[in-house]
Every structure is written in C-alpha cells, then in structure tokens.
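Onboarding guide, step 5: your first structure request.
Type a short instruction followed by the sequence, for example:

Predict the 3D structure of this protein.
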Amino acid sequence: MSTEEASVLLDEASLAALKIAFTYMPKAIEVTRYEYGERYQTVLDHIEAVREVLLINGVDPEEVYGDVNPDQTPNSTY
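The system replies with structure tokens like these:
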C-alpha cells in the first residue's frame, strides 16, 4: 500500500465495515506457513495493511473487537 493510498481517511460507514471485516481476520500470530502454506506472507501483509488504515483513521486495532462486539468482550480491570 502506497503512502498516498494509506493517507485517505474513510467515511464512517466504510470504517465500520473495515472494523467488522478486521474482527474476522486471523491474528498475525496465528498465521503460519503450516496453516497458510506459501501464502502466509501475503496474509501477514494484508493484516498489516488493514491495521495501518485503522491506525490512520484513529482506531486502535487492538480495541476493534470490543468496539464491534461490546457484549462479547470481557471488562478489563487495569
């Protein structure tokens, strides 16, 4: 993804859709050559591209699941 592509801010509906899609993506730590074969690096690149767009749009990728599924997210106590 080029810098020009990554610098575009998404509208609210597009950002919501990206957040939903991100919750279904595997976590980077789950992506292995055994599981994904020769495509594992491509899958990792896709995950990183989505994370970058979320960050550019002011969304913490680590908080997306809780934002999309608040009723299924345990309360943190830190």
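Each response can be followed by summary notes, for example: The first helix runs from residue 3 to 6.
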